[in-house]
Write a structure and sequence with these properties.
alpha+beta
Length: 488
């Protein structure tokens, strides 16, 4: 009896804590999509979107990946959904794409809540084929993350132009009276972003005047598509010689890199066999020799983990089917052998050809662009720089006055200070007074004042200069007597 009560009360306590955890998770996420049924029959999936927000979705326990994917696509109102996918990490820290034909619980082992990320799975080789403005906006968000994380390498001049398009799409036209390079410093575009780059982005931003957010995003994609590593899905492998290589999956084929040097390209039509076994990936390629005869070449690569090897193989199968085929390969359900060899995985989505031919743009698409994450502004000093040619005169005046003030401070200790006023004037000889050899007869009666603060006022204040010039020779003699009296 006591054991029965202990088990019953224990289950209720665990169930109660589970419900509280799910409620906290739903409150923590930005949006919560509930599901019908009690807490024992549902699972919670938390999906991070490209704009930085989170969506918490409740689904039945036996739900497949298709249900979660359709919920996210419906929530975002995405029609061109075949370019996107949901990604998760396993216990071995290997990234996987969620298979929409399999159960979520069988794939994502870490949870609940089961955490996934919405990502661009297939980068369109021609961004102009993307019909929807929302799709192009999500592509830009993905490329910005790739460049900032260092996954997509970008030359400095190209990164400046892309950053200018991104600022134009978010902030609109540049107003030099209200905006400055310090505003650009609130954004992060590249890993090592410096002040000179921010000045260059500000200048390029001014050239983008008149572009709408949609036009700026189109220009962003048309510029980014010419990057060497655009849309390349990189995987680290090892060759037979033990050296490290990288295989890059592209719309045209498989790239082979040794370090950062591209040493080969296997076109999809030339690849006749692609298989894996544990941590070994085998690639058979057909090439024509000098006599025009086809010869087979076998390449064997190894990965650190069997799950990583299978993930690479699945990504290669999906890239080949999406970019090369007009339609997915239909499964033959009549032939089901008793003993099955290899994986049954096949690409089940639509191809790029089907997506571009069947999808038609909607007349009106309303969505909200989420602001980017902001950082603290860089404290820039107003100084002449090669990027900001239109400095205001007031800035130049402040800079020059600061330099002159620093010079007069060093001259100040050389001048004696009057500590007490004399009771009566002290006579001095006129011949011993200091003379200026560069002055003419009309200017000899306008000798400089001994106070250095008056020098600064005369240099930058015309009224003070004229007032000082009107001082008579007798006044100068009286000031000199006061100085001598103080020195004694």
């Amino acid at each position: 009896m006591l054991g029965f009560l202990r088990r019953t009360l224990g289950r209720r306590t665990v169930r109660r804590h589970t419900e509280k955890d799910k409620q906290r998770e739903a409150q923590r996420s930005g949006t919560h999509i509930p599901a019908a049924g009690d807490s024992r029959s549902i699972i919670t999936c938390r999906v991070s979107l490209l704009d930085g927000s989170d969506v918490s979705v409740d689904l039945p326990k036996k739900a497949k990946g298709q249900e979660l994917f359709e919920q996210i696509m419906y929530h975002l109102d995405i029609i061109e959904k075949d370019y996107f996918g949901l990604r998760f990490m396993d216990s071995a820290q290997v990234a996987h794409w969620l298979d929409i034909t399999k159960s979520i619980k069988k794939q994502v082992k870490i949870g609940p809540p089961y955490c996934l990320h919405l990502r661009v799975k297939f980068y369109s080789s021609e961004p102009n084929n993307l019909h929807e403005e929302l799709t192009r906006y999500l592509f830009v968000l993905q490329l910005k993350q790739d460049i900032l994380s260092g996954k997509l390498e970008c030359p400095s001049d190209t990164s400046v132009q892309l950053s200018a398009y991104a600022v134009q799409a978010e902030m609109g036209d540049c107003d030099p009276s209200d905006h400055g390079p310090d505003l650009v410093s609130e954004f992060r575009f590249v890993p090592n972003q410096g002040e000179e780059m921010e000045f260059a982005i500000f200048e390029k931003w001014k050239e983008c005047r008149g572009q709408t957010p949609s036009q700026a995003e189109i220009n962003y994609l048309n510029k980014a598509k010419w990057l060497e590593m655009y849309g390349v899905d990189m995987h680290k492998v090892k060759g037979r010689d033990g050296n490290e290589y990288s295989l890059g999956l592209t719309p045209t084929g498989v790239l082979v890199f040794e370090g950062e040097t591209k040493i080969g390209l296997f076109f999809w039509p030339k690849i006749i066999k692609l298989e894996f076994k544990k941590s070994k990936l085998t690639l058979v390629v057909v090439e024509d020799d000098e006599q025009g005869k086809e010869q087979e070449h076998t390449f064997v690569f190894r990965l650190d983990h069997p799950k990583a090897c299978k993930h690479l193989w699945k990504c290669a199968v999906e890239h080949h089917a999406f970019f090369r085929l007009r339609g997915p390969v239909q499964k033959n359900s009549n032939q089901l052998p008793f003993v099955r060899m290899g994986s049954r995985f096949r690409y089940s989505g639509r191809t790029e050809y089907q997506t571009t031919k069947t999808n038609k743009p909607r007349r009106q698409v309303s969505f909200e662009r989420r602001p980017s994450r902001r950082y603290s502004r860089r404290s820039t000093q107003h100084r002449a720089n090669p990027f900001n040619k239109n400095l205001e005169p007031s800035l130049l005046f402040n800079t020059a006055s600061q330099k002159l003030a620093s010079q007069t401070v060093t001259m100040r200790p050389m001048i004696p200070v009057v500590t007490a006023l004399p009771s009566e004037p002290v006579p001095i000889e006129i011949e011993n007074l200091p003379r200026s050899p560069g002055l003419n007869q009309s200017e000899k009666r306008r000798l400089p004042c001994a106070d250095d603060s008056l020098l600064l006022e005369r240099a930058w204040n015309p009224q003070a200069a004229s007032a000082a010039a009107d001082r008579t020779y007798t006044e100068f003699v009286y000031a000199h007597n006061l100085k001598n009296a103080g020195a004694q």
